[in-house]
Every structure is written in structure tokens, then in C-alpha cells.
Design a protein that fits this description.
The protein is mainly α. It is built from eleven helices and no strands.
């Protein structure tokens, strides 16, 4: 809590250094502060981090792109494109999971539908992110979820991983009733 309060006083440019910290808590706190501040400089830095050789840096970049400028998300279209491109070549399951969850946060329904093959990923984190992305992307829409997406959620609801099953249950609830 003290660290988070201290980070509020840092200028945006100084927070960038913490995005590549080895400590996940430090990276996460810096990313949360930056995603709320938004701005082109934060978007540009996140885009550059996607090119990092370090998986934790790419993961935090994916998180940032999905949340940047909350609640308006002014870089939604550009972020969606970058996240879909990242998934095409990403080997690290945590980065894939973050990118997919971010597509859901962006409510990028068409992009989520393009990455449905990850519902069969070996990683439970990735499969759980697919469930989340489907549910969250549809939470603000009126009307029903498509049959195709419904089938995927029902399949994930029976997954061997309890985390995936829980995410699928939540996604089904989100898709059936809009968020307020």
C-alpha cells in the first residue's frame, strides 16, 4: 500500500523503469498507475515493451494495452491489433494469457473470435483467459452470445482445471447479464 501511494507522486516517465522490474508486485503496481494515467507516451512505451526479449515485460505490456486509458480506452483499435499480432508468435503462456484477457478487457469481440483456437491451449491460464475474454467482451452487449462461443464456454466449463471451470462459469454469467 505504501509503495502504491509513493508511485502516485512519480512522473509518468519515471514509472516506465518499474515495468521491467524483476518483482511482479512492482511491475503490477507501476502498470496499474500507468494504465489509469493513459496517454500516447504510455501507449508507445507499452508497444515497445512488446518487443522485449523478456516474457514478463511482454506480459505487462499486454496488460497495459488492455487497460490503457480506462475507462475510455482511447487506444482500443491500435491495442487490439498489437495484441492479436503478439499472439501469432508468442511462445510464453503467461504472455498469451495476458494478451487474450486484454482483448476481453477491450471488448474486442471480433478479435476474441479470431483467437478461439487458444481454447485448446495446453496452459490452463490461457484457457481461463479465453473464457474470461468471451464473457467480458459480451458483458456490455444486449442480446445472446453466439452458438459458437456458447459451445466453447460449455466445453471450458468441463475443463480438467478448476481455474478454467471457474472462469467459464463467470464468463457464462457475464455474457448472460450486462454489467452496470
Amino acid at each position: 500500500m505504501l509503495t502504491s501511494e509513493a508511485l502516485k507522486a512519480y512522473p509518468t516517465a519515471m514509472l516506465f523503469q518499474f515495468l521491467e522490474d524483476r518483482d511482479v508486485i512492482v511491475r503490477s503496481l507501476a502498470a496499474r498507475h500507468l494504465q489509469l494515467r493513459g496517454g500516447k507516451d504510455v501507449f508507445d512505451y507499452a508497444r515497445q515493451l512488446l518487443l522485449s526479449k523478456r516474457a514478463p515485460s511482454r506480459e505487462v505490456a499486454a496488460f497495459l494495452l488492455g487497460q490503457l486509458g480506462t475507462p475510455k480506452r482511447p487506444f482500443r483499435v491500435q491495442s487490439t491489433r498489437l495484441l492479436v499480432d503478439l499472439l501469432k508468435s508468442e511462445a510464453n503462456s503467461q504472455v498469451r494469457a495476458a494478451a487474450i484477457a486484454s482483448l476481453g478487457q477491450l471488448r474486442a469481440i471480433n478479435a476474441v473470435e479470431r483467437v478461439l483456437s487458444y481454447a485448446n491451449d495446453r496452459s490452463p491460464a490461457v484457457r481461463a483467459s479465453i473464457a474470461f475474454a468471451i464473457g467480458y467482451a459480451h458483458a456490455q452487449r444486449s442480446g445472446k452470445i453466439s452458438v459458437k462461443l456458447g459451445k466453447i464456454l460449455w466445453k471450458l466449463r468441463k475443463d480438467r482445471s478448476p481455474t478454467v471451470r471457474d472462469s467459464a462459469e463467470l464468463a457464462i454469467e457475464l455474457a448472460q447479464k450486462p454489467l452496470k
